[in-house]
Sequence to fold (314 residues):
Amino acid sequence: MADTETLVPKFSDPFVTANGETRAEVIYGRTKTLWFNTGTLCNIECVNCYIESSPTNDRLVYLTMADVLPYLDELDEAGETGIEIGFTGGEPFMAPQMLAILQVVLERGHSVLMLTNAMQPMMRPRVQEGLLALREQFGAQLTMRVSLDHYQVSYHDEERGAGSFDLAIKGLRWLSENAFTLALAGRTVWGEDEAVSRAGYSDLIAKEALRVDPDNPTELVLFPEMRPDEDPPEITTACWGILDKDPNELMCASQRMVVKRKGAASASVVACTLLPYDEQFELGQTLGEARKSVRLNHSYCASFCVLGGGSCSA
Ligand code: SF4
Ligand code: SF4
Fold:
């Protein structure tokens, strides 16, 4: 990790760190998860939303079926069948064609990880009806992962606004009662010990009779915080050995995210879910173009991925 004489500003040169060492890169292998960001509009505005979603942020616009289909064709052509397709936003259920897109993705044989806040957009009768039909047809191929920042009302609402905990619980109850495969996504912003967090969620899960195992890290995911103001060390090629870390474990080794920028003629592919706005992580318009190595030239690469251990699909 860089720590001595500074020659250039940190995280400025994709190939070299501030003190002249070779910046680490991650080679792309096979696609484990392809994410689609359905758009940055959201029904709420959370304090620490890393993508700055809100009812007015449309920097990433709604994806349509026409945007999604070419990427599904590319996966088929590459023999990447039956993989995980993730949908994130904003709130994905605000995207007008969301249900139709889910139908096509599931028909192609992929499993779906659907991130949602389970609030009003998901609870509209038309969406509920469509989700029930998808669950009927595809069962456990579809996983609904609901953001519940904390198991206590006050902490969750501090992030998401008054009343949002109760609305999320209402959505969770509906999903659980209707036998959807469920997961929860919590945050660690309050610095709580993991065992304490899992115990807290466990009590809530029992009280609400939710079909989630709080001790299973894929059913209750507790995300490390992304802190843009941190000043982490840069990651060099030597770091893998020093930290005993395998670069293939990083999200950008096996995952990509499709986005559509406001005003863009077509969708494009970025290296991961964490850096949707940084142009140096935009890798091309097709998945084929995006199958290239990624230089870890962002503070999040260091603080969140290499040193913090975060992964959006853990
Ligand atoms: S619900 Fe999710 S996407 Fe929407 S503002 Fe909150 S964290 Fe961001
Ligand atoms: S933020 Fe993480 S997943 Fe994204 S490019 Fe950097 S190391 Fe890879």
User: Anything to note?
Assistant: The chain has a mean pLDDT of 93. Residues 26, 250-252, 271-272, 274-275, 281, 294, 296, 298, 300-301, 305 surround iron/sulfur cluster (ligand 2) (CB under 6 Å). The chain has nine helices and eleven strands. The chain has one domain: 28-306.
